[in-house]
Amino acid sequence: MWSSGEPADSYYEVRPECTDVPKTRFKIKPGKTLSVRKWQAAFTPEGHLDISKTLGRIQRGGIHPSIRGEVWEFLLGCYDPKSTFEERDEIRQRRRVEYASWKEECREKFPIVGSGKFITAPVITEDGQSVQEPLYLLEAGNNAAAEPPKDRDAAETGETGETDDTGEAGEEGKAGEAGEEGEAGEPASTAVVGETVANGETQSSINISSWQMMKEIISHGPLDKKVIQWILTLHQIGLDVIRTDRTLVFYEKQENLSKLWDILAVYAWIDTDVGYCQGMSDLCSPMIILLDDEADAFWCFERLMRRLYQPSNDLLLLEFQKRGNFRCTESSVGVESQLSNLAAITQVIDPKLHQHLEALGGGDYLFAFRMLMVLFRREFSFCDSLYLWEMMWALEYDPDLFELYEEPEAAEGSKGRTKSIRHYGKYERENMKSGSAEEAPLPISVFLVASVLKDKSAKLLQEARGLDDVVKVNFLKLTSAMPTYILDYNFILNDITGNLDAKKACTGAMKLHKKYLKKAKK
After folding, report:
1. Where do the record's region annotations for Disordered lie (predicted)?
2. Which of 248, 246, 152, 136 is nearest to 192 (CA)?
3. Residue 278 CA to chain centroid, in angstroms?
4. pTM metric for this prediction
5. 3.40.50.300, 3.40.50.150, 1.10.472.80, 1.10.357.140: which CATH number matches 315-521?
6. Can you tell me the distance from the alpha carbon of 136 to that of 125, in angstroms, rounded to the nearest whole number?
7. Which of 99, 206, 253, 394 lies most in the core, judged by the most C-beta atoms within 10 Å?
8. Beta-ladder partners of 474
């Protein structure tokens, strides 16, 4: 039996030299946390899951780390609670075969995929030619060898160069894409354990061999435009992989880094609308850690990406709206719609704060960009961010998720028709009661940010006299097509990282959601 409030840190071991990571607040609590016993008791002998028995537990106390991966597969819509053990096993095997097929397709186009290695320097130009200067690859690879960062935000992206007065990255910042100097003159890729990555090979030697391999591939004829665009993203994936959750012992193993790179590379290949954007590695990393099978981790990540869309009751538009946070154009990025929603919510629940932020030039709410983009991964410890995610998903849970993803036509119009309202998450039930479920309900993540702002409202109103008092903005490249923004918190909002309580944040979000629904009706 667990002791009261058993810490969960031991399940996600932190490297001993990383002493400044946020402390974990999540504790395993008997009677509140969903335990192995309670989880198993929720299934019938055939395998049907009574999801209503688990949602309340998750909302109150999260999930025991030992079963977190398999519970997430249901919360994210990988499996239908009404399915049997046998049916789920058939789906699992079919998906594993499908993933293996996609991975083999990628390997045929770029043999590093599936090799246990990955690249961190570009090997191809935008016109489909191999990079002509192998020395550049060598230097880029050598710069990707250093100790873990003391400041986890300093290495969160591939480009951390200083900005000039116009907000554009200077020459050093532009070099960051190849892993060169960051904003403090330190190597941008400061999160790598060491240069030797596998079988005595160095990352730079892998980059060189990849360049030679690329020359051989191109010698057989011009590449398709889709292939060129995909290969162009692979080194950026590599740069992000070596910076993702590098405080965890788990990523000291080359095989785990390679698994993360492979999954993101395959996803970028099959989802050409989104491809790869910075931030996706932060969302994918927990799946690798929680699920042993690479294919299972891929499908869990794929379902998470599907969640990140602007919901709509028009299922014909669903495919165009899903993954909206990462859908980019030359002039905008999808998460901006969530920022607009945040502005609208704040205007309703705290009009004085909204007016104040607008007067400071922060009415676009760009300071919340990072929170929404990677679902608060930087504001919480690794363990607490998982706790926050599962509470959010339990609160938002819709039993039609599986059908919505697998058979959207069958799911259309079925909400609440044959299922008990107990099978829906508390947040979703509130939307159904108010009628907003039929009007593209806002995700709970937006209300979480609004709750943080509400808590800081008095301080912001009293002390913020300019946008610099709220945030410091660094302009970084999110995709090769457009410059956009990754935010570093400063001054007033600086103290939220590591100091937020996931349970209290969700409770605050639910209160604001209810308040917003009442005021919005008037």
Report:
1. 142-189
2. 246
3. 9
4. 0.81
5. 1.10.472.80
6. 13
7. 394
8. 486
